[in-house]
Amino acid sequence: MGRSGEIQEDFYAERTRILDALSQDEYKQIVMRLIGALAFRTHCPQFGYLQDALGRVFTDIDFATYSRHIKDVTRFLTELGYHEDKMVTRLFGEGRMLFHEDKYGRHIDVFLDRLDFSHVLPLTGRLEVDTLTLPLAELLVEKMQIVQLNEKDLIDTIMLLREHSVGNSDNETINATVISHLAANDWGLWRTLTGNLAHVSERLDKYPQLTDDDRRVVRERINALLDLIESQPKTMRWKVRSAVGERVKWYKDVEELAHR
Questions:
Q1: Does the CA dihedral 36-39-44-47 come out positive or negative?
Q2: N-to-C CA span, the chain
Q3: Which of 5, 133, 140, 260 lies at a 20 to 30 A Cα distance from 239?
Q4: C-alpha pair distances (Å), 15 with each of 37, 107, 140, 221
């Protein structure tokens, strides 16, 4: 048995066990925030049922932290009953760690300083914004910066946009200022974000579980976000890369661990 009780079979219950342990005085210095599907669910108390209705299944628990917390995070998760996959740490070294537990075969990914998928999403100074998860803006970008979207990415995004309005703050709001500034400095990220947001809007009619109000609200929020992204003045870096366009690949292929 690890500290803070036994490892829980239910993903959401295990999420709660970990977050409760993180809030204890012994670990409060660790800046470690939930990301991924469980973070979306955490911030969607009203429309979280959409994950269930649309067939979303939890498969892992993901966190982000700063590299300065590596030793503390390793000690923390070890005390909760997890053990580090040192081969993955050596392989991904500067950007990622992996921890396993043997009772249910669950694993925890811990990303360091940034999310490095199809594009790089820097997290410096942003992990402190929310006490439990990534800020909503980064949660949305986490999904929308993946070039090869899958069904679970669409479902999480629809749920988040149904629950939260688009604005210019981080207080239970999708901060369009943060997203538009990221996109204005990186043409490749802009291309992927805007294309994926449009794709989400197009796919809404494919889900009979959604109501007309669900579709209307999500589309309105997507359109508002796209308008703000387009109106943000672009940097010289963006303009130079824009001139090249899609003649040169603008994203990285995402390499995932085989069991993910």
A1: positive
A2: 25
A3: 140
A4: 11, 12, 20, 29
Beta strands 96-100 and 83-84, pairing class: antiparallel
CB neighbourhood size of 193 (10 A): 24
Q: Is 70 helix (H, G, I), strand (E, B) or coil?
A: helix
Q: Evaluate if residue 258 carries a pLDDT over 50.
A: no
Q: Does 212 reside within a domain?
A: yes
CA 103 from chain centre, in angstroms, equals 26
| Model confidence pLDDT, tens digit, residues 17-74 | 999 999 999 999 999 999 999 999 999 999 999 999 999 999 999 999 999 999 999 9
CA distance 98 to 62: 9
Task: Quote the strand ranges of the chain, DSSP E.
Answer: 32-35, 61-65, 83-84, 96-100, 107-112, 114-116, 120-122, 166-167, 174-175
Structural domain harbouring 168: 31-66+113-247
Determine, yes or no, domain membership for 130.
yes
Q: What is the mean pLDDT of the chain?
A: 95
- Cα 20 to Cα 52: distance, rounded to the nearest angstrom: 24
**Alpha-carbon gap, residue 158 to 54, rounded angstroms:** 10
Residue 144 in any domain: the answer is yes
**Residue 152 to residues 9, 42, 116, 137, 146, Cα–Cα distance (Å):** 21, 16, 19, 18, 12
Report the predicted TM-score, pTM, of the whole model to 2 decimal places: 0.94
Give the DSSP H or E segment for 49: helix 49-53
Question: Is residue 103 in a domain?
Answer: no
